[in-house]
Write a structure and sequence with these properties.
By secondary structure, the chain is α+β, with helices and mostly antiparallel strands. The chain contains 6 helices and 4 strands, in the order ααααααββββ. The chain has a 4-stranded antiparallel sheet with strand order 1-2-3-4, with helices on one face.
């Protein structure tokens, strides 16, 4: 059945269905996991605004990276999956991830990524460690840049006061 689905979505994708490509690449990354397969699937899901599939493929990519002993990249992917599950409305799944990965409990996002924005090239979210001590607060910006196919954590030195 899985191979039939893969063939069907591959056929649709080759014939111009923009909605089939993210699904096909998602399935392909599950069948033959590799860094390249996961990056292509994540990129296609982000461009197609398939928040649900993007969350799932990020979670699977995190597990793959953990097996490859790339803990930092794995944590970045699981963090992205956590916020994508929240964006999608899968709060029970996000809660389960926060129980499985204690570092997620310390993160607070200031601004949600809009799944309805007309531009899918860049969206930013800010998170903090949740500490009440201003000296120990660490601000982070998640930069989602589909053009470069990268996911980065960037320290923010100061926050603009309103």
């Amino acid at each position: 059945l899985g191979e039939k689905c893969m063939s069907h979505f591959k056929f649709l994708s080759k014939n111009g269905s923009v909605n089939a490509r993210p699904v096909y690449l998602f399935l392909k990354s599950m069948r033959s996991p590799s860094r390249d397969a996961f990056v292509k699937a994540i990129e296609a899901c982000a461009e197609g605004k398939f928040v649900n599939l993007e969350a799932m493929v990020n979670e699977r990519y995190a597990a793959f990276l953990r097996e490859e002993n790339d803990e930092a990249a794995s944590n970045d992917c699981i963090t992205e999956a956590y916020f994508l599950y929240q964006d999608w409305g899968a709060h029970a799944k996000a809660l389960q991830l926060s129980k499985d990965h204690s570092f997620l409990k310390k993160l607070r996002r200031k601004k949600e990524r809009s799944v309805f924005s007309s531009s899918h090239k860049t969206a930013n979210s800010t998170v903090s460690t949740g500490s009440d001590d201003p000296a120990s607060k660490k601000k982070m910006t998640f930069s989602f840049n589909s053009t470069l196919k990268q996911r980065k954590l960037v320290s923010v030195k100061s926050e603009k006061k309103k």
